[in-house]
Design brief:
- By secondary structure, the protein is an all-alpha fold.
- The protein folds into 2 domains: about 140 residues, no CATH class; about 45 residues.
- The chain is built from 8 helices and no strands.
- Helix 1 crosses helix 4, helix 2 packs across helix 6 and helix 3 crosses helix 4.
- The longest helix is centred in the middle third of the chain and has 43 residues.
- Pfam families: Chromate_transp.
- It is a multi-pass membrane protein.
Length: about 180
């Protein structure tokens, strides 16, 4: 963890506050931004470590927050994890408080609904870009593509939870590894 200790707590706070302030579009859009900043720009975390953190983050609660917490923890332990999570949440908390006040003060503005409806296509595009980017770097062979398509089908067609898909993929991978080892 020597490399990670060079990142100051102030730098962790600034980066995750920026991600929290500029990351719009839901979980995958924010995860894509977090990956771009922490993996590609800052080079704080490798792609494999980031993907492991993303997988862990899928298990419980909001995975974009969990991924940020994982990176902060990777960089500076529990203090880094709490700081990254707090910095990531702070802009949303401030903005939601401000917007709530504005809404309850001026709740009869039809222009507000029009503005919010216009953001939906942008959010969908950001999610697709994130999925394609992550898919290109991790899904390489025929078996990987089959696993990715099966996971997508389970989620899209059968409303399977992320935890169910991860557990199924784990058992599948363990079984496949055992089968290959036994039938060499």
């Amino acid at each position: 963890m020597e490399r990670a200790q060079r990142v100051s707590l102030l730098e962790i706070f600034k980066v995750f506050f920026f991600i929290g302030a500029t990351g719009f579009g839901g979980g995958m859009a924010i995860v894509s931004l977090t990956e771009r900043v922490c993996v590609h720009e800052k080079k704080w975390v490798g792609t494999d470590e980031f993907m492991h953190g993303l997988a862990f983050g899928q298990i419980l609660g909001p995975f974009s927050l969990n991924t940020c917490t994982f990176v902060g923890y990777y960089l500076r332990g529990p203090v880094g994890g709490v700081l990254a999570a707090s910095a990531f949440i702070a802009p949303s908390f401030i903005l939601v408080c401000l917007l709530s006040w504005l809404y309850f003060t001026f709740h009869e503005l039809p222009q507000l609904q029009s503005a919010l409806n216009g953001t939906n296509p942008v959010i969908i595009a950001l999610i697709i870009v994130a999925a394609v980017g992550m898919g290109r770097s991790k899904v390489k062979g025929k078996e990987d593509w089959l696993m990715a398509l099966a996971a997508f089908a389970a989620a899209a067609l059968f409303s399977a939870s992320a935890l169910t898909i991860l557990v199924a993929a784990t058992f599948w991978s363990l079984g496949r590894s055992w089968y290959r080892r036994e039938h060499r």
